[in-house]
Amino acid sequence: MSLSTRQDLATLVSSTTDKDIVIYLYADWCGPCKTIGPTVDECMRKAVSKGHLCLKLNVDRCSDLFSFLRSSRRIIQGIPAILYYNVENTSIYPDELFTGADCDNLLQFFETFVYT
After folding, report:
1. Which of 30, 43, 54, 62 is catalytic?
2. Is 54 a known active-site residue?
3. CATH code for residues 6-114
4. Where are the domains of the chain?
5. Which three-class secondary structure string do you get for the chain?
6. Distance between CA atoms of 74 and 95, rounded to whole angstroms?
7. Closest CA to 78 of 8, 26, 9
8. Residue 33 is a catalytic residue
9. Are 105 and 98 within 8 A, CB to CB?
């Protein structure tokens, strides 16, 4: 599945009615993304095993979407970022957001919002 525009995101969120959605925004050149990358991969595998839809998006390949997320209500300010959409959410605005490179906080985010 490919997301590159805000319309792609809106379509995905509004049409996915049976799963929570987790989207990881990163870049290959981003040091903090490299720091948490292996932990994110592990968490995403566990989330998939629990029935969630998980996507990894390189911001260099979806610049329209990334620009929108940074400008619209400042959903995110930078990367790495993880957006969590509850199955009941049909809006492009995530229910929960994680930013930063602290692996302990990342694990807590997944435990609190995604794995429950």
Report:
1. 30
2. no
3. 3.40.30.10
4. 6-114
5. CCCCCHHHHHHHHHHCCCCCEEEEEECCCCHHHHHHHHHHHHHHHHHHHCCCEEEEEECCCCHHHHHHHHHCCCCCCCCCEEEEECCCCCCCCCCEEEECCCHHHHHHHHHHHHCC
6. 14
7. 26
8. yes
9. yes
Sign, CA dihedral 36-56-44-7, equals positive
Q: Do residues 34 and 101 touch, judged by C-beta distance below 8 A?
A: no
36 CB-near residues (< 8 Å, 6+ apart): 80, 101, 102, 103, 106
* Per-residue pLDDT tens over the stretch 78-104: 899 999 999 999 888 899 999 999 999
pTM recorded for the entire structure:
0.92
